[in-house]
Amino acid sequence: MEVTLKILRFDPLKDKKPRFQEYVVEVYEYTRVLEALIWVRENLDPSLSFRYSCRMAQCGSCGMLIDEVPRLACKTLIKDLGRDEVTIKPLPKYRVIKDLVVEMDDFFEKHRSVKPYLIRKNREEQEKPKKFYVQLPHELQRYLNYGYCIVCGLCSSSCPNFDSSWEYLGPQALSQAYRYIVDSRDEGFEERYEVLNSNSGVWRCHFASECSENCPKGVEPAQAIQMLRRMILSFSFKKKLSLFSEKIHRLSKQ
C-alpha cells in the first residue's frame, strides 16, 4: 500500500522556520519507519537528514517523534500505526541540528554527571582487582532491567519537566544512577548523593510516568526515581540522626 510520510524539515542555516514536506512511499507488511526514510533519501530526496546505525533497536540512534509519540524508527512498523499518513518530527526537548537530527551533547553530559559506572572505595583495588566480584541471581535482578537502557533519550524527551539545556537531569540519567547504586559491587552512593539530591535531581520529577510508558526497552525510569527518593530520604535521616547523636554525646560530656 502507499503511505504518505509527512516530515518536519528544518535547516537552521537556511530556513527561518520548520516546514512539513510530504513523500509518498510504497510499504509492505513489515516495512518500518526507518526503512521508509532510507528509501526516501535514496530515491526521492538525498537532502533529508536523520540519524541511525544498528537498525535493530540496540543503539538508540533513530529516536524521533512518530505520530506525536517518541519512538525508535527502526522498531516501529508502519502497519501498526494504522494510518495512511505518518507524521514524523525530531525528538522534542532537544535542539534541532537539521531535519530529524537533534543535538544530544547536553543529554549525554547529564548521563555522565551521575557517574554511570561502578565505584569502589578502594580505587587502587578497583583498577587492579585481585578477585572476581561474584553476584547471586537475586543481586543481579535488582538492577538487570535498568541495565537494558540504550541511552536513546526517548524517556527524557517524553518527560514534561525535561529540557536538554536546563538543569534537570531527566529520567534517563536518574534511572542509570539507580542501576549502579543498587548493584552489589558498587559503593558510590555517597559520591552521587549531592547531584541526586540537588535542584537538578530526583525532586524535579512530578511522576507523570511518560518516561516509562515510552521506553522502547521496557525500562522503568519512573520507578527508579521513586526508589532513589526513598534511598535519599533514608540516608538523609540517618545522617541527621548521626549528627544529632554526636551533639548529644558532646553535651553529655560537658
* Low-pLDDT segments: none
User: Which strand order do you get reading across the main beta sheet?
Assistant: 2-1-5-3-4
CATH architecture of the largest domain: Orthogonal Bundle
Mean of residue pLDDT values: 93
Beta-strand content bin: 5-15%
Let me know the CATH homologous superfamily of the largest domain: Alpha-helical ferredoxin
Radius of gyration: 23 Å
**What is the molecular shape?**
elongated
CATH topology of the largest domain: Fumarate Reductase Iron-sulfur Protein, Chain B, domain 2
| Backbone structural class | alpha+beta
CATH class of the largest domain: Mainly Alpha
Overview of the molecule:
The chain has helices at residues 33-43, 78-81, 105-113, 123-127, 137-141, 154-158, 170-181, 189-196, 210-214, 221-253; strands at 2-9, 19-26, 63-66, 69-72, 85-89, 96-98, 101-102. 31% of the residues are buried. It has ten helices and seven strands. The model has no long low-confidence stretch (mean pLDDT 93). The strands form two sheets. The chain has a five-stranded mixed beta sheet with strand order 2-1-5-3-4. The protein has a two-stranded antiparallel sheet with strand order 6-7. The protein folds into two domains: 2-102, Ubiquitin-like (UB roll) (Roll), CATH 3.10.20; 105-241, Alpha-helical ferredoxin (Fumarate Reductase Iron-sulfur Protein, Chain B, domain 2, Orthogonal Bundle). The N and C termini lie far apart (87 Å). Helix 3 (105-113) packs parallel to helix 7 and helix 7 (170-181) packs across helix 10 (221-253). Helix content is 38%, strand content 13%. The chain is of the alpha+beta class.
